[in-house]
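Table 4 source record.
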Amino acid sequence: MRAFLVLALLLPLATSAQTRYEWVGGNGNWTEAANWSPMGVPAEADTAVVANGSIRIASLTQNTIIAGLEMGGLGVIAGNFDLTITDHLLWAGGGAGFETFRGTGTITLASGATGHLAEGTSRFQMT
């Protein structure tokens, strides 16, 4: 029993809780914790949701990796950096003539990730 307790104290448990972050920042930087609810910045195990009724522009300020991205309403991802999604993409934002991803960066779905573009192809527009 003592050996188990010593081993348990020496080997920290690896936990990776996924958090669902919703963009509340209006127009602002992706890496600004106050632009997300709960306050923080989506990391590799997390899902980012940019889905509000008015235009919301989340500007990437560095290459970013997240598990999930859910776009809706008039959400926009902008910037000259790359966004990699490792689990799922649900894109139901934007509208005809409205760019939902702008800048020179790219969005990459990693091997094994799923992508769903909802409500017709006019919802996903890039420059």
